[in-house]
Amino acid sequence: MAAPKGKRVIRKRRERKNIEKGAVHIRSSFNNTMVTITDTMEQNTRTLVITDNGPGLVPEMIDKCFDPFVTSKAVGSGLGLAIARRLAAQNGTFIDLSNSITGGTRAVMVQDLSFFRTEKDTQDTT
Hints:
There is one protein chain. This protein is an alpha+beta fold. It has four helices and four strands.
């Protein structure tokens, strides 16, 4: 069952905030790190890409970074990405992390905007 429309917006903000917090942590940990955020929409898909030019993910973390209680930081619960992915999935959004081909980390959120159409919206357009 989908969350009410207002709750979806709050969850979307929380998902993005958790991803951005990771990028900001990287930026504050390494000199000259840049974070780039692009947000594009095509038809029924919205894509948010957050990249940095930091050290990237260590190979051991790539497959585990969304698991609860897994962290590479000295401080932290390891829940931020697990929560972000769970909330995203509940809202028709896919989240993935990878190492960028140019170095650094690349976070991608792909949102199916048709997920947010209500039955009433569908009836209004027919």
